[in-house]
Design brief:
Elements: H1 3-32, H2 36-108
Length: about 110
């Protein structure tokens, strides 16, 4: 094989490889290409996901705010309960004191 034949055969092989690659690429794109309806559906799904994430974030913010309000109310109720219990203790002590006083007065008679 002389030099000209070698160059020709190499050129034919390279051209055939190019054609096979182009054909394979075209076939893959033809079989697996995305249609416009697929793309619009993907865009719609992405928008729905974004909206759902925003709604979740808003719900979490409202939940944290509500939880803070409830904790504040609970602290207030606990302090009121403690004050009421202290008042009740004092009242019981006073009642016992008055009972003792009455019993002593009745015993003197």
């Amino acid at each position: 094989m002389n030099r000209t034949e070698f160059i020709t055969v190499t050129a034919i092989i390279l051209f055939a490889a190019f054609l096979l690659g182009w054909l394979a690429s075209w076939l893959v794109h033809r079989l697996f290409r995305s249609t416009r309806s697929d793309m619009s559906e993907l865009d719609h799904m992405a928008q729905q996901l974004h909206d759902a994430e925003e709604a979740r974030d808003e719900a979490i913010d409202r939940l944290e705010e509500r939880e803070g309000e409830l904790r504040s109310k609970l602290r207030g109720a606990e302090s009121e309960l403690e004050a009421a219990m202290d008042g009740l203790r004092e009242s019981r002590a006073e009642v016992e004191e008055l009972r003792g006083y009455i019993e002593r007065k009745l015993a003197r008679r």
